[in-house]
Design a protein that fits this description.
Layout: E1 6-10, H1 14-26, E2 32-36, H2 40-48, E3 52-59, E4 62-69, E5 71-73, E6 89-92, H3 99-103, E7 115-119, H4 125-133, E8 142-148, E9 151-156, E10 159-164, E11 168-172, H5 191-197, E12 204-206, H6 209-233, H7 246-264, H8 274-277, H9 280-293, H10 300-306, H11 317-327, H12 332-361
Parallel strand pairs: 1-2, 1-6, 2-5, 3-10, 6-7, 7-8, 11-12
Antiparallel strand pairs: 3-4, 8-11, 9-10
Helix pairs in contact: 6-7, 6-9, 6-10, 6-12, 7-9, 7-11, 11-12
Domain Ketopantoate reductase C-terminal: 213-344
InterPro entries: 6-PGluconate_DH-like_C_sf, 6PGD_dom2, ApbA, Ketopantoate_reductase, KPA_reductase, KPR_N, NAD(P)-bd_dom_sf
Domain Ketopantoate reductase N-terminal: 7-173
Length: 362
């Protein structure tokens, strides 16, 4: 094992912080987790809290609390001569719409020997970053992606509540030129990924890319059905089951998604179980099950709207719409839902602004 390898975490939100905390707690002497903050204010706040992360875990009637102390910064690391210091391991856990701007300052620190783990909602980020920063792919870092079903949120900048024990599913994202090459075996993975897979609290597993792709598509469809509808209707996940006109909308979201996935990912033809896995009825039942098991959860998109923050709609339903444009497949339901989420946010922001102005004039 390399001596105390550094793992940088770009995006210290709930999931990025949770992963950093659990790995730092499990391997205090085997690696160094470093949080990268967007602003000096957020970095100062973290340092003023003794550079600690606190994770609160309700488990049945009991509540467990654990604390870790991590390094942090907000600028790309540099060598003594001022040149960019290599970043060998990077976890990207920013919001999808922030990723390009957040990653750009760190591009000089990355090389083809760097390892990047994308830990986000949505699909298409690996290809988007490749097209943006490494268009010829020869100098593209080794990119892996993780799908998370953990439930976590923050109640303070350094306090994470891990309320839903889920799992992380990880795969290597092949370069287009390497799509037919053998994938890395689990024992060939980057050292920090091996350590992540052995971190019990994260419940992580490694899948071949083909199997991962199906899981990723299912997760996107679940998010495309639940997140925007709960945001538009301002309800908990489980409340969708009471909507008398919800099922037809979900069916159309699913059908459009499956059509564009099959057009975009020719690889699906080489996956024997793809047709049964992407069956519309099976996917609808999966959405129902998630609504039931997370019935009291408020989706991240609903919370973004309630906080008047930008949403990840362009990387969820918007991703489906984009593929539809590319392949000339109509996606009217996903397009309408994307527009409604954006309209909901703009209306709420305007109402808040109007109320604030009135209060100031009173």
């Amino acid at each position: 094992m390399a001596s105390n390898p550094k793992v940088y975490v770009l995006g210290a939100g709930s999931m990025g912080s949770l992963v950093a905390h659990e790995m730092a707690s499990k391997y205090p002497n085997a690696l160094q987790m470093i949080l990268l903050f967007k602003t000096q204010g957020r970095l100062n706040n973290f340092v003023n809290n003794n550079s600690e992360l606190v994770v609160v875990k309700p488990r049945g009637p009991n509540i467990f609390t654990s604390t870790s102390q991590l390094a942090a910064g907000r600028f790309p690391p540099r060598l003594k001569d001022g040149k960019p210091a290599p970043i060998n391991n990077l976890i990207i856990s920013t919001k999808t719409y922030q990723t390009k701007a957040a990653l750009e300052p760190y591009i000089p620190n990355l090389s083809s020997s760097s390892n990047i783990l994308i830990l986000q909602n949505g699909m298409g980020m690996a290809q988007h970053l490749t097209d943006t920063f490494w268009p010829n792919e020869s100098n593209r870092p080794n990119i892996l992606q993780a799908i998370s079903t953990h439930g976590a949120y923050k109640t303070a900048p350094n306090v994470i509540h891990h309320v839903g024990q889920g799992k992380l599913t990880i795969a290597q994202i092949p370069r287009k030129l390497d799509i037919q090459k053998p994938e890395l075996a689990e024992n060939e993975l980057p050292e920090f990924i091996k350590l992540l897979l052995q971190t019990e609290e994260l419940n992580a597993s490694y899948l071949p890319y083909k199997a991962f792709l199906l899981v990723q598509m299912e997760k996107l469809i679940v998010n495309a059905c639940i997140n925007p509808l709960t945001a538009i209707l301002d309800c908990f996940n489980g409340d969708l089951l009471y909507g008398t006109k919800i099922v037809p909308i979900m069916k159309r979201v699913i059908n459009e998604a499956v059509q564009v996935f099959k057009a975009e990912y020719k690889l699906l033809k080489n996956i024997p179980e793809a047709n049964s896995f992407l069956n519309d009825d099976r996917l609808l039942n999966t959405v129902f099950e998630i609504c039931k098991t997370t019935s009291q959860n408020s989706s991240s998109m609903r919370e973004d709207i309630r906080s008047l923050n930008n949403t990840e709609i362009d990387w969820i339903n918007g991703y489906i719409v984009g593929l539809g444009y590319q392949h000339k497949i109509p996606t009217p339901t996903n397009k309408m839902i994307s527009s409604m989420v954006k309209n909901k946010l703009s209306i709420d922001r305007s109402l808040e602004s109007t109320a604030t102005n009135r209060a100031l004039k009173a």
